[in-house]
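STRUCTURE:
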């Protein structure tokens, strides 16, 4: 089966993803593919999101 990654201009973020403790959680197959292809949950990317959140630059509540 071929699964097309999330398209940010066509798909609603909240239908496919959640974010918990700076880690992306996939809600759909599209999200799983997107997270894997873009390596969104690599340790260094999670740490970067945590630092941005602690600095007040990234607000996770906007992603809920």
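SEQUENCE:
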């Amino acid at each position: 089966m071929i699964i097309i990654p999330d398209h940010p201009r066509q798909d609603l973020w909240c239908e496919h993803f959640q974010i918990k403790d700076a880690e992306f959680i996939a809600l759909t197959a599209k999200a799983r593919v997107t997270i894997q292809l873009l390596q969104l949950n690599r340790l260094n990317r999670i740490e970067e999101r945590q630092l941005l959140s602690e600095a007040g630059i990234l607000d996770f509540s906007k992603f809920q």
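REMARK: The chain has a mean pLDDT of 91.
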